[in-house]
Amino acid sequence: MLHEGNKVMNIKRKLRNISRNGPSYAIIFFALIVGAIMVVPTYLFLSYVLRNQLAATDDPWALRQKIRIASIGLNLIVAPCMASRTRTEQFLNLRKKTVKKPQPQAAAASVKEAPPQKPVEPPMQKPVQKQEPAHPQETTQVQAPAPTVTPAQPQGPVITFDDIAGYAETKKNMEFIVKCLRNPELLRQVGAKIPAGILLYGPPGTGKTLMAKAIAGTAGVNFYSANASEFVQVWVGQGALNVRALYQAAKANAPSIVFIDELDAIGGTRTSGQNQEYRQTLNALLTEMDGIGKDSGVLTIAATNAFEDLDPALVRPGRFDRKIMIPLPNVADRLAIIKLYAAKRNMVPGISLEKLARETVGMSGSAIATMFNEASIRAVMADRGVIIETDLDGALTQMLTNGEAAKATNPEDLKIAAYHESGHAVIMRLLAKDPVQKVSIIGSTIGAVGMTFRSDNEDRLLVPVEVIRARIIAAYGGRAAEELVFGKENITVGARQDIKDASAYIREYLDCGAGGALLHEETFAGGRVSPDINTAKNISKALYEEAVKFLGEHRDSLERVAQALLDKETIMEEELEALL
Questions:
Q1: Residue 82 neighbours by CB distance under 10 Å
Q2: Considering the domain boundaries, does residue 227 fall inside one?
Q3: Catalytic-residue membership of 421
Q4: pLDDT for residue 122
Q5: For the chain, what is the domain count?
Q6: Which of 254, 303, 464, 536 has the fewest C-beta atoms under 10 angstroms from its C-beta?
Q7: From the candidates 230, 262, 288, 421, which is the catalytic residue?
Protein backbone atom coordinates (compact mmCIF):
# COMPACT_ATOMS: atom_id res chain seq x y z
CA MET A 1 0.00 0.00 0.00
CA LEU A 2 2.81 2.37 0.84
CA HIS A 3 4.48 1.57 -2.49
CA GLU A 4 1.25 2.27 -4.39
CA GLY A 5 0.81 5.52 -2.48
CA ASN A 6 4.31 6.59 -3.49
CA LYS A 7 3.46 5.86 -7.13
CA VAL A 8 0.35 8.01 -6.89
CA MET A 9 2.41 10.83 -5.31
CA ASN A 10 5.03 10.55 -8.05
CA ILE A 11 2.33 10.76 -10.72
CA LYS A 12 0.84 13.84 -9.06
CA ARG A 13 4.28 15.41 -8.78
CA LYS A 14 5.02 14.76 -12.46
CA LEU A 15 1.70 16.23 -13.52
CA ARG A 16 2.33 19.32 -11.37
CA ASN A 17 5.83 19.75 -12.86
CA ILE A 18 4.45 19.40 -16.38
CA SER A 19 1.77 22.04 -15.67
CA ARG A 20 4.42 24.46 -14.37
CA ASN A 21 7.25 23.92 -16.84
CA GLY A 22 5.20 23.11 -19.93
CA PRO A 23 1.73 24.63 -19.49
CA SER A 24 0.74 24.05 -23.11
CA TYR A 25 1.24 20.26 -22.86
CA ALA A 26 -0.60 20.01 -19.56
CA ILE A 27 -3.54 22.05 -20.86
CA ILE A 28 -3.77 19.90 -24.02
CA PHE A 29 -3.69 16.72 -21.91
CA PHE A 30 -6.51 17.83 -19.61
CA ALA A 31 -8.49 19.26 -22.54
CA LEU A 32 -8.31 15.90 -24.33
CA ILE A 33 -9.67 14.12 -21.26
CA VAL A 34 -12.54 16.58 -20.94
CA GLY A 35 -13.14 16.45 -24.70
CA ALA A 36 -13.38 12.66 -24.70
CA ILE A 37 -16.03 12.88 -21.99
CA MET A 38 -17.97 15.55 -23.91
CA VAL A 39 -18.04 13.76 -27.29
CA VAL A 40 -21.27 11.85 -26.56
CA PRO A 41 -23.17 14.81 -25.06
CA THR A 42 -22.08 16.95 -28.01
CA TYR A 43 -23.29 14.28 -30.47
CA LEU A 44 -26.67 14.06 -28.73
CA PHE A 45 -27.01 17.84 -28.64
CA LEU A 46 -26.23 18.25 -32.36
CA SER A 47 -28.60 15.39 -33.22
CA TYR A 48 -31.37 17.14 -31.29
CA VAL A 49 -30.69 20.46 -33.03
CA LEU A 50 -30.63 18.82 -36.48
CA ARG A 51 -33.60 16.51 -35.87
CA ASN A 52 -35.68 18.14 -38.62
CA GLN A 53 -32.89 17.69 -41.19
CA LEU A 54 -32.45 14.04 -40.12
CA ALA A 55 -36.17 13.38 -40.64
CA ALA A 56 -36.24 15.07 -44.05
CA THR A 57 -33.03 13.64 -45.56
CA ASP A 58 -32.94 10.53 -47.75
CA ASP A 59 -29.69 9.30 -46.18
CA PRO A 60 -29.85 9.88 -42.39
CA TRP A 61 -26.88 7.57 -41.75
CA ALA A 62 -24.52 9.84 -43.74
CA LEU A 63 -25.72 12.94 -41.83
CA ARG A 64 -25.28 11.14 -38.49
CA GLN A 65 -21.75 10.21 -39.57
CA LYS A 66 -20.98 13.89 -40.21
CA ILE A 67 -22.39 14.78 -36.77
CA ARG A 68 -20.08 12.17 -35.16
CA ILE A 69 -17.05 13.55 -37.00
CA ALA A 70 -17.97 17.14 -36.01
CA SER A 71 -18.41 16.15 -32.36
CA ILE A 72 -15.05 14.38 -32.26
CA GLY A 73 -13.23 17.19 -34.07
CA LEU A 74 -14.79 19.91 -31.93
CA ASN A 75 -13.96 18.24 -28.61
CA LEU A 76 -10.65 16.53 -29.37
CA ILE A 77 -8.98 18.98 -31.80
CA VAL A 78 -10.43 22.50 -31.83
CA ALA A 79 -11.19 22.89 -28.10
CA PRO A 80 -7.77 21.66 -26.82
CA CYS A 81 -5.90 23.90 -29.26
CA MET A 82 -7.92 27.00 -28.29
CA ALA A 83 -7.62 26.25 -24.57
CA SER A 84 -3.89 25.71 -24.88
CA ARG A 85 -3.32 28.99 -26.70
CA THR A 86 -5.42 31.23 -24.45
CA ARG A 87 -4.45 29.72 -21.11
CA THR A 88 -0.75 29.49 -22.00
CA GLU A 89 -0.65 33.19 -22.88
CA GLN A 90 -2.35 34.12 -19.60
CA PHE A 91 0.03 31.89 -17.64
CA LEU A 92 3.13 33.24 -19.32
CA ASN A 93 1.99 36.87 -18.95
CA LEU A 94 1.36 36.29 -15.25
CA ARG A 95 4.75 34.69 -14.95
CA LYS A 96 6.47 37.62 -16.67
CA LYS A 97 4.82 40.04 -14.27
CA THR A 98 5.89 38.08 -11.23
CA VAL A 99 9.42 37.77 -12.56
CA LYS A 100 9.80 41.39 -13.70
CA LYS A 101 8.27 43.03 -10.66
CA PRO A 102 11.11 42.57 -8.18
CA GLN A 103 13.80 43.60 -10.70
CA PRO A 104 13.35 47.41 -10.45
CA GLN A 105 13.15 47.13 -6.68
CA ALA A 106 16.31 45.10 -6.56
CA ALA A 107 18.06 47.58 -8.80
CA ALA A 108 16.77 50.44 -6.70
CA ALA A 109 17.88 48.72 -3.53
CA SER A 110 21.37 48.19 -4.88
CA VAL A 111 21.64 51.88 -5.70
CA LYS A 112 19.90 53.05 -2.56
CA GLU A 113 22.26 51.18 -0.28
CA ALA A 114 25.06 53.38 -1.58
CA PRO A 115 24.33 56.43 0.66
CA PRO A 116 25.79 55.01 3.87
CA GLN A 117 28.45 57.78 3.73
CA LYS A 118 26.26 60.39 5.38
CA PRO A 119 27.84 63.81 5.83
CA VAL A 120 26.82 63.93 9.49
CA GLU A 121 28.96 60.88 10.38
CA PRO A 122 32.33 61.70 12.01
CA PRO A 123 35.33 61.42 9.70
CA MET A 124 37.22 59.15 12.13
CA GLN A 125 34.61 56.42 11.92
CA LYS A 126 36.00 52.94 11.35
CA PRO A 127 35.30 51.05 8.10
CA VAL A 128 33.50 48.35 10.06
CA GLN A 129 31.04 50.90 11.39
CA LYS A 130 30.30 52.17 7.88
CA GLN A 131 28.73 48.82 7.07
CA GLU A 132 26.10 49.34 9.77
CA PRO A 133 23.40 51.16 7.79
CA ALA A 134 21.76 47.75 7.58
CA HIS A 135 19.54 48.61 10.55
CA PRO A 136 15.91 47.73 9.85
CA GLN A 137 14.78 51.31 10.45
CA GLU A 138 17.24 52.87 7.99
CA THR A 139 16.62 50.19 5.36
CA THR A 140 12.89 50.82 5.31
CA GLN A 141 13.43 54.58 5.10
CA VAL A 142 15.86 54.36 2.18
CA GLN A 143 13.74 51.88 0.20
CA ALA A 144 10.49 53.79 0.65
CA PRO A 145 10.57 55.87 -2.57
CA ALA A 146 10.32 53.45 -5.50
CA PRO A 147 10.68 54.57 -9.13
CA THR A 148 7.59 54.55 -11.31
CA VAL A 149 8.24 52.29 -14.28
CA THR A 150 4.83 50.99 -15.26
CA PRO A 151 2.74 52.48 -18.08
CA ALA A 152 -0.06 54.74 -16.91
CA GLN A 153 -3.36 52.91 -16.99
CA PRO A 154 -6.26 55.04 -18.31
CA GLN A 155 -8.79 55.95 -15.65
CA GLY A 156 -12.25 55.91 -17.22
CA PRO A 157 -12.84 56.35 -20.95
CA VAL A 158 -9.93 56.94 -23.31
CA ILE A 159 -9.53 60.63 -24.23
CA THR A 160 -9.07 61.57 -27.89
CA PHE A 161 -8.88 64.86 -29.76
CA ASP A 162 -12.65 64.68 -30.35
CA ASP A 163 -13.10 65.23 -26.60
CA ILE A 164 -11.26 68.58 -26.78
CA ALA A 165 -13.31 71.53 -27.99
CA GLY A 166 -11.71 74.45 -29.81
CA TYR A 167 -7.95 74.88 -30.43
CA ALA A 168 -8.21 73.69 -34.03
CA GLU A 169 -4.66 74.64 -35.06
CA THR A 170 -3.09 73.11 -31.94
CA LYS A 171 -4.99 69.85 -32.42
CA LYS A 172 -3.95 69.78 -36.07
CA ASN A 173 -0.26 69.92 -35.07
CA MET A 174 -0.77 67.24 -32.43
CA GLU A 175 -2.61 64.92 -34.82
CA PHE A 176 0.32 65.15 -37.23
CA ILE A 177 2.72 64.14 -34.43
CA VAL A 178 0.49 61.14 -33.68
CA LYS A 179 0.46 60.23 -37.36
CA CYS A 180 4.26 60.27 -37.44
CA LEU A 181 4.44 58.15 -34.29
CA ARG A 182 2.31 55.51 -35.97
CA ASN A 183 4.21 55.68 -39.24
CA PRO A 184 7.79 57.05 -38.82
CA GLU A 185 8.56 56.31 -42.47
CA LEU A 186 6.64 59.45 -43.47
CA LEU A 187 9.41 61.57 -41.97
CA ARG A 188 12.32 59.30 -42.84
CA GLN A 189 11.50 59.56 -46.53
CA VAL A 190 12.44 63.25 -46.45
CA GLY A 191 15.31 62.87 -43.98
CA ALA A 192 13.37 64.09 -40.94
CA LYS A 193 12.63 62.46 -37.60
CA ILE A 194 10.07 62.68 -34.83
CA PRO A 195 10.67 65.65 -32.49
CA ALA A 196 12.62 64.68 -29.40
CA GLY A 197 10.22 66.53 -27.14
CA ILE A 198 7.08 68.66 -27.10
CA LEU A 199 6.65 71.35 -24.46
CA LEU A 200 3.12 72.57 -23.78
CA TYR A 201 3.00 75.86 -21.89
CA GLY A 202 0.46 78.50 -21.11
CA PRO A 203 -1.85 79.77 -18.35
CA PRO A 204 -3.30 77.28 -15.84
CA GLY A 205 -6.45 75.43 -16.79
CA THR A 206 -6.12 75.72 -20.58
CA GLY A 207 -5.97 71.95 -21.18
CA LYS A 208 -2.27 71.11 -21.46
CA THR A 209 -2.58 67.83 -19.55
CA LEU A 210 -5.78 67.01 -21.42
CA MET A 211 -3.95 67.53 -24.73
CA ALA A 212 -1.21 65.09 -23.66
CA LYS A 213 -3.82 62.50 -22.67
CA ALA A 214 -5.46 62.91 -26.08
CA ILE A 215 -2.11 62.22 -27.76
CA ALA A 216 -1.73 59.05 -25.67
CA GLY A 217 -5.29 57.95 -26.36
CA THR A 218 -4.92 58.48 -30.10
CA ALA A 219 -1.35 57.29 -30.73
CA GLY A 220 -1.91 53.75 -29.47
CA VAL A 221 1.59 53.48 -27.93
CA ASN A 222 2.75 52.94 -24.36
CA PHE A 223 2.16 56.01 -22.20
CA TYR A 224 4.25 56.75 -19.10
CA SER A 225 3.03 59.60 -16.92
CA ALA A 226 4.66 61.27 -13.91
CA ASN A 227 4.46 64.52 -12.02
CA ALA A 228 7.79 66.34 -11.83
CA SER A 229 7.46 66.77 -8.07
CA GLU A 230 7.53 62.96 -7.67
CA PHE A 231 11.15 62.82 -8.82
CA VAL A 232 12.68 65.02 -6.14
CA GLN A 233 13.30 62.98 -2.97
CA VAL A 234 15.00 63.54 0.36
CA TRP A 235 17.91 61.22 -0.55
CA VAL A 236 20.52 62.64 -2.91
CA GLY A 237 20.49 60.61 -6.12
CA GLN A 238 17.03 59.13 -5.64
CA GLY A 239 15.38 61.59 -8.05
CA ALA A 240 17.97 60.83 -10.75
CA LEU A 241 17.35 57.10 -10.19
CA ASN A 242 13.62 57.63 -10.66
CA VAL A 243 14.21 59.52 -13.93
CA ARG A 244 16.50 56.78 -15.28
CA ALA A 245 14.05 54.04 -14.25
CA LEU A 246 11.19 55.83 -16.02
CA TYR A 247 13.10 56.25 -19.29
CA GLN A 248 14.57 52.74 -19.08
CA ALA A 249 11.05 51.28 -18.98
CA ALA A 250 9.92 53.60 -21.81
CA LYS A 251 12.87 52.60 -24.02
CA ALA A 252 12.27 48.90 -23.35
CA ASN A 253 8.70 49.30 -24.65
CA ALA A 254 9.37 51.76 -27.49
CA PRO A 255 7.73 53.41 -29.29
CA SER A 256 6.36 55.14 -26.21
CA ILE A 257 5.46 58.52 -24.76
CA VAL A 258 6.77 59.96 -21.50
CA PHE A 259 4.59 62.74 -20.10
CA ILE A 260 5.95 64.95 -17.30
CA ASP A 261 3.44 67.33 -15.75
CA GLU A 262 4.44 70.55 -13.94
CA LEU A 263 7.95 70.41 -15.44
CA ASP A 264 9.04 73.57 -13.60
CA ALA A 265 9.19 71.53 -10.35
CA ILE A 266 12.52 70.01 -11.51
CA GLY A 267 13.33 72.01 -14.64
CA GLY A 268 13.87 75.46 -13.19
CA THR A 269 16.99 77.47 -13.94
CA ARG A 270 20.00 76.11 -12.04
CA THR A 271 21.68 78.42 -9.54
CA SER A 272 24.70 78.08 -7.30
CA GLY A 273 22.65 77.78 -4.12
CA GLN A 274 20.48 74.81 -5.12
CA ASN A 275 20.67 71.50 -3.29
CA GLN A 276 22.50 68.63 -4.93
CA GLU A 277 19.45 66.39 -5.27
CA TYR A 278 17.66 68.98 -7.44
CA ARG A 279 20.66 69.42 -9.73
CA GLN A 280 21.28 65.68 -10.10
CA THR A 281 17.62 65.07 -11.00
CA LEU A 282 17.67 67.78 -13.67
CA ASN A 283 21.00 66.52 -15.06
CA ALA A 284 19.58 63.00 -15.32
CA LEU A 285 16.58 64.35 -17.24
CA LEU A 286 18.85 66.31 -19.60
CA THR A 287 20.94 63.21 -20.28
CA GLU A 288 17.93 60.97 -20.94
CA MET A 289 16.38 63.44 -23.37
CA ASP A 290 19.53 64.14 -25.38
CA GLY A 291 22.19 61.63 -24.36
CA ILE A 292 24.43 59.30 -26.35
CA GLY A 293 21.65 56.89 -27.34
CA LYS A 294 18.92 59.46 -27.89
CA ASP A 295 17.29 57.75 -30.91
CA SER A 296 15.36 55.40 -28.68
CA GLY A 297 11.80 55.81 -29.95
CA VAL A 298 10.69 57.74 -26.85
CA LEU A 299 8.78 61.00 -27.25
CA THR A 300 8.85 63.30 -24.22
CA ILE A 301 5.87 65.59 -23.65
CA ALA A 302 5.94 68.07 -20.79
CA ALA A 303 3.55 70.72 -19.48
CA THR A 304 4.29 73.84 -17.46
CA ASN A 305 2.68 77.10 -16.39
CA ALA A 306 6.04 78.86 -15.96
CA PHE A 307 7.90 78.60 -19.25
CA GLU A 308 10.10 81.61 -18.51
CA ASP A 309 11.46 79.92 -15.35
CA LEU A 310 12.77 76.78 -17.11
CA ASP A 311 16.48 76.08 -17.50
CA PRO A 312 17.82 77.12 -20.96
CA ALA A 313 19.57 73.76 -21.37
CA LEU A 314 16.23 71.98 -20.95
CA VAL A 315 14.20 73.99 -23.46
CA ARG A 316 16.85 74.20 -26.17
CA PRO A 317 16.28 72.51 -29.57
CA GLY A 318 17.29 68.87 -29.46
CA ARG A 319 15.43 68.30 -26.22
CA PHE A 320 12.17 70.13 -26.73
CA ASP A 321 12.08 70.67 -30.48
CA ARG A 322 8.50 71.93 -30.41
CA LYS A 323 7.17 74.46 -27.95
CA ILE A 324 3.41 74.86 -28.27
CA MET A 325 1.58 77.68 -26.53
CA ILE A 326 -1.88 76.74 -25.19
CA PRO A 327 -3.44 80.19 -24.65
CA LEU A 328 -6.70 81.18 -23.04
CA PRO A 329 -9.52 80.34 -25.46
CA ASN A 330 -10.86 83.07 -27.73
CA VAL A 331 -14.57 83.59 -28.28
CA ALA A 332 -14.82 80.85 -30.93
CA ASP A 333 -12.97 78.35 -28.75
CA ARG A 334 -15.07 79.28 -25.72
CA LEU A 335 -18.24 78.74 -27.73
CA ALA A 336 -17.04 75.27 -28.73
CA ILE A 337 -16.16 74.45 -25.11
CA ILE A 338 -19.52 75.77 -23.87
CA LYS A 339 -21.39 73.67 -26.44
CA LEU A 340 -19.43 70.60 -25.33
CA TYR A 341 -20.42 71.02 -21.67
CA ALA A 342 -23.96 72.19 -22.44
CA ALA A 343 -24.61 69.00 -24.45
CA LYS A 344 -23.93 66.94 -21.31
CA ARG A 345 -26.49 68.80 -19.17
CA ASN A 346 -30.23 69.21 -19.05
CA MET A 347 -30.82 72.89 -19.85
CA VAL A 348 -33.97 74.80 -20.71
CA PRO A 349 -34.21 75.82 -24.37
CA GLY A 350 -33.62 79.41 -25.35
CA ILE A 351 -30.33 80.01 -23.50
CA SER A 352 -27.96 81.87 -25.83
CA LEU A 353 -24.63 80.04 -25.78
CA GLU A 354 -23.11 82.69 -28.07
CA LYS A 355 -23.92 85.36 -25.51
CA LEU A 356 -22.43 83.21 -22.75
CA ALA A 357 -19.24 82.82 -24.80
CA ARG A 358 -18.91 86.60 -25.07
CA GLU A 359 -19.46 87.03 -21.32
CA THR A 360 -16.73 84.56 -20.32
CA VAL A 361 -13.77 86.65 -21.52
CA GLY A 362 -10.50 85.53 -19.94
CA MET A 363 -11.88 82.25 -18.60
CA SER A 364 -10.01 79.01 -19.26
CA GLY A 365 -11.54 75.69 -20.24
CA SER A 366 -11.38 74.40 -16.68
CA ALA A 367 -13.04 77.60 -15.41
CA ILE A 368 -15.90 77.09 -17.88
CA ALA A 369 -16.26 73.48 -16.72
CA THR A 370 -16.42 74.68 -13.11
CA MET A 371 -19.01 77.28 -14.08
CA PHE A 372 -21.31 74.63 -15.58
CA ASN A 373 -20.83 72.41 -12.55
CA GLU A 374 -21.71 75.31 -10.24
CA ALA A 375 -24.81 76.04 -12.34
CA SER A 376 -25.87 72.39 -11.98
CA ILE A 377 -25.40 72.61 -8.21
CA ARG A 378 -27.55 75.75 -8.08
CA ALA A 379 -30.31 73.97 -10.02
CA VAL A 380 -30.25 71.07 -7.54
CA MET A 381 -30.31 73.48 -4.59
CA ALA A 382 -33.45 75.06 -6.08
CA ASP A 383 -35.12 71.61 -6.46
CA ARG A 384 -35.03 71.80 -10.24
CA GLY A 385 -34.03 69.11 -12.70
CA VAL A 386 -32.98 71.58 -15.39
CA ILE A 387 -30.52 74.47 -15.56
CA ILE A 388 -32.02 77.88 -16.26
CA GLU A 389 -30.31 81.12 -17.26
CA THR A 390 -30.34 82.41 -13.66
CA ASP A 391 -28.20 79.45 -12.60
CA LEU A 392 -25.60 80.20 -15.26
CA ASP A 393 -25.65 83.91 -14.44
CA GLY A 394 -25.09 83.24 -10.73
CA ALA A 395 -22.33 80.75 -11.46
CA LEU A 396 -20.60 83.22 -13.80
CA THR A 397 -20.78 85.96 -11.17
CA GLN A 398 -19.26 83.65 -8.59
CA MET A 399 -16.43 82.68 -10.96
CA LEU A 400 -15.62 86.32 -11.83
CA THR A 401 -15.90 87.80 -8.33
CA ASN A 402 -15.00 84.79 -6.14
CA GLY A 403 -18.13 85.43 -4.10
CA GLU A 404 -21.91 85.00 -4.05
CA ALA A 405 -24.22 87.64 -5.47
CA ALA A 406 -25.46 90.05 -2.80
CA LYS A 407 -27.56 93.22 -3.11
CA ALA A 408 -27.00 96.27 -0.94
CA THR A 409 -29.94 97.03 1.36
CA ASN A 410 -29.28 100.73 1.97
CA PRO A 411 -31.13 102.91 -0.63
CA GLU A 412 -28.32 105.48 -0.59
CA ASP A 413 -25.73 102.78 -1.39
CA LEU A 414 -27.90 101.53 -4.26
CA LYS A 415 -28.14 105.05 -5.70
CA ILE A 416 -24.38 105.62 -5.48
CA ALA A 417 -23.74 102.18 -7.03
CA ALA A 418 -26.15 102.93 -9.89
CA TYR A 419 -24.36 106.15 -10.86
CA HIS A 420 -20.94 104.54 -10.30
CA GLU A 421 -21.62 101.64 -12.67
CA SER A 422 -23.41 103.94 -15.10
CA GLY A 423 -20.23 106.05 -15.35
CA HIS A 424 -18.20 102.96 -16.28
CA ALA A 425 -20.73 101.78 -18.84
CA VAL A 426 -21.20 105.15 -20.61
CA ILE A 427 -17.47 105.76 -21.11
CA MET A 428 -16.75 102.13 -22.09
CA ARG A 429 -19.40 102.14 -24.76
CA LEU A 430 -19.22 105.70 -26.10
CA LEU A 431 -15.50 106.49 -25.77
CA ALA A 432 -13.59 103.17 -25.67
CA LYS A 433 -16.09 101.49 -28.06
CA ASP A 434 -15.84 98.28 -26.01
CA PRO A 435 -18.89 95.97 -25.88
CA VAL A 436 -20.56 96.02 -22.45
CA GLN A 437 -22.23 92.68 -21.73
CA LYS A 438 -23.98 93.53 -18.48
CA VAL A 439 -24.29 96.31 -15.90
CA SER A 440 -25.66 95.47 -12.47
CA ILE A 441 -26.01 96.94 -8.98
CA ILE A 442 -26.19 93.43 -7.53
CA GLY A 443 -22.73 93.02 -6.05
CA SER A 444 -21.03 90.13 -4.31
CA THR A 445 -20.22 88.99 -0.80
CA ILE A 446 -16.57 90.04 -1.17
CA GLY A 447 -17.52 93.73 -0.94
CA ALA A 448 -18.42 94.82 -4.49
CA VAL A 449 -21.69 96.79 -4.62
CA GLY A 450 -22.07 96.63 -8.41
CA MET A 451 -20.41 95.23 -11.51
CA THR A 452 -19.88 96.19 -15.14
CA PHE A 453 -18.87 93.38 -17.49
CA ARG A 454 -16.81 94.44 -20.48
CA SER A 455 -15.70 92.10 -23.28
CA ASP A 456 -12.57 92.69 -25.33
CA ASN A 457 -12.56 92.91 -29.09
CA GLU A 458 -10.74 89.60 -29.53
CA ASP A 459 -10.62 89.84 -33.32
CA ARG A 460 -7.76 92.35 -33.03
CA LEU A 461 -4.31 91.21 -31.99
CA LEU A 462 -2.78 94.70 -32.01
CA VAL A 463 -4.64 97.08 -29.70
CA PRO A 464 -4.23 100.79 -30.57
CA VAL A 465 -2.66 102.94 -27.88
CA GLU A 466 -5.71 105.22 -27.93
CA VAL A 467 -7.91 102.27 -26.91
CA ILE A 468 -5.72 101.73 -23.83
CA ARG A 469 -6.01 105.43 -23.07
CA ALA A 470 -9.82 105.24 -23.36
CA ARG A 471 -9.89 102.23 -21.01
CA ILE A 472 -7.95 104.21 -18.41
CA ILE A 473 -10.64 106.91 -18.62
CA ALA A 474 -13.36 104.22 -18.35
CA ALA A 475 -11.69 102.81 -15.22
CA TYR A 476 -11.95 106.28 -13.65
CA GLY A 477 -15.58 106.61 -14.86
CA GLY A 478 -17.16 105.33 -11.63
CA ARG A 479 -15.33 107.76 -9.36
CA ALA A 480 -15.86 110.60 -11.85
CA ALA A 481 -19.62 109.92 -11.85
CA GLU A 482 -19.73 110.04 -8.04
CA GLU A 483 -17.92 113.40 -8.04
CA LEU A 484 -20.15 114.80 -10.77
CA VAL A 485 -23.45 113.78 -9.15
CA PHE A 486 -22.79 113.80 -5.39
CA GLY A 487 -19.90 116.25 -5.13
CA LYS A 488 -16.19 115.82 -4.56
CA GLU A 489 -16.61 115.69 -0.80
CA ASN A 490 -18.99 112.68 -1.03
CA ILE A 491 -16.77 110.35 -3.10
CA THR A 492 -16.84 106.82 -1.61
CA VAL A 493 -14.28 104.01 -1.32
CA GLY A 494 -15.97 102.04 -4.10
CA ALA A 495 -13.27 102.98 -6.63
CA ARG A 496 -10.39 101.07 -5.00
CA GLN A 497 -10.41 98.29 -7.57
CA ASP A 498 -10.96 100.81 -10.37
CA ILE A 499 -7.77 102.65 -9.38
CA LYS A 500 -5.83 99.35 -9.45
CA ASP A 501 -7.16 98.61 -12.94
CA ALA A 502 -6.31 102.13 -14.12
CA SER A 503 -2.77 101.81 -12.75
CA ALA A 504 -2.24 98.58 -14.68
CA TYR A 505 -3.45 100.24 -17.87
CA ILE A 506 -1.16 103.24 -17.26
CA ARG A 507 1.81 100.89 -16.92
CA GLU A 508 0.91 99.29 -20.26
CA TYR A 509 0.33 102.74 -21.73
CA LEU A 510 3.83 103.88 -20.75
CA ASP A 511 5.48 100.63 -21.91
CA CYS A 512 4.10 101.35 -25.40
CA GLY A 513 5.98 104.65 -25.49
CA ALA A 514 2.98 106.85 -24.80
CA GLY A 515 4.77 108.64 -21.98
CA GLY A 516 7.14 110.40 -24.36
CA ALA A 517 10.35 108.36 -23.86
CA LEU A 518 10.73 105.59 -26.44
CA LEU A 519 13.04 103.52 -24.21
CA HIS A 520 12.78 100.16 -22.47
CA GLU A 521 13.73 101.12 -18.94
CA GLU A 522 14.51 97.57 -17.77
CA THR A 523 17.31 97.36 -20.35
CA PHE A 524 19.11 100.31 -18.78
CA ALA A 525 18.27 99.64 -15.13
CA GLY A 526 19.20 95.93 -15.20
CA GLY A 527 15.97 94.87 -13.51
CA ARG A 528 12.27 95.51 -13.30
CA VAL A 529 11.67 99.11 -12.16
CA SER A 530 8.65 101.35 -12.19
CA PRO A 531 8.47 104.02 -14.89
CA ASP A 532 8.82 107.68 -13.95
CA ILE A 533 6.21 108.01 -11.22
CA ASN A 534 5.74 111.69 -11.91
CA THR A 535 4.81 110.94 -15.53
CA ALA A 536 2.32 108.28 -14.37
CA LYS A 537 0.77 110.71 -11.86
CA ASN A 538 0.40 113.41 -14.48
CA ILE A 539 -1.27 110.97 -16.89
CA SER A 540 -3.67 109.68 -14.23
CA LYS A 541 -4.65 113.22 -13.20
CA ALA A 542 -5.22 114.37 -16.77
CA LEU A 543 -7.27 111.31 -17.75
CA TYR A 544 -9.40 111.49 -14.58
CA GLU A 545 -10.26 115.10 -15.38
CA GLU A 546 -11.12 113.99 -18.92
CA ALA A 547 -13.46 111.33 -17.46
CA VAL A 548 -15.30 113.97 -15.42
CA LYS A 549 -15.54 116.23 -18.48
CA PHE A 550 -16.84 113.45 -20.75
CA LEU A 551 -19.57 112.43 -18.30
CA GLY A 552 -20.55 116.08 -17.92
CA GLU A 553 -21.03 116.29 -21.68
CA HIS A 554 -23.11 113.06 -21.63
CA ARG A 555 -25.02 113.74 -18.41
CA ASP A 556 -28.34 112.72 -19.96
CA SER A 557 -26.99 109.27 -20.92
CA LEU A 558 -25.55 108.89 -17.40
CA GLU A 559 -28.92 109.69 -15.84
CA ARG A 560 -30.87 107.31 -18.12
CA VAL A 561 -28.59 104.35 -17.41
CA ALA A 562 -28.51 105.04 -13.66
CA GLN A 563 -32.31 105.29 -13.45
CA ALA A 564 -32.69 102.05 -15.42
CA LEU A 565 -30.35 100.32 -12.97
CA LEU A 566 -32.39 101.56 -10.01
CA ASP A 567 -35.56 100.24 -11.67
CA LYS A 568 -34.29 96.87 -13.01
CA GLU A 569 -31.06 96.29 -11.01
CA THR A 570 -29.44 94.64 -14.08
CA ILE A 571 -29.16 95.88 -17.67
CA MET A 572 -28.07 93.61 -20.49
CA GLU A 573 -26.23 94.64 -23.67
CA GLU A 574 -29.33 95.19 -25.82
CA GLU A 575 -31.04 97.40 -23.21
CA LEU A 576 -27.88 99.46 -22.74
CA GLU A 577 -27.60 100.06 -26.49
CA ALA A 578 -31.19 101.29 -26.55
CA LEU A 579 -30.57 103.68 -23.63
CA LEU A 580 -27.44 105.16 -25.23
A1: 11
A2: yes
A3: yes
A4: 40
A5: 4
A6: 464
A7: 421
